[in-house]
Write a structure and sequence with these properties.
With 57 residues, the chain is mostly helical. The chain has two helices and no strands. Helices cover 33% and strands 0% of the residues.
Length: 57
């Protein structure tokens, strides 16, 4: 299709959606990135709810 927009960048790689506001709830990926910044242990095995609770502490 000519002129159709594709999901990805010009190199064919998928691009990540960016949140336009700071509205809750955050996605697991967003929470995981915050956990990385805080060096939260065990974050890779945590679900979204667990990450959210751990980051509140």
């Amino acid at each position: 299709m000519i002129g159709a927009q594709s999901r990805g960048n010009r190199h064919g790689m998928a691009t990540e959606k960016q949140r336009t506001g700071s509205s809750e709830p955050k996605t697991r990926q967003e929470l995981y990135r915050e956990a990385q910044k805080c060096d939260l242990p065990g974050r890779s095995k945590m679900g979204r709810d667990e990450l959210e609770r751990a980051l509140r502490r």
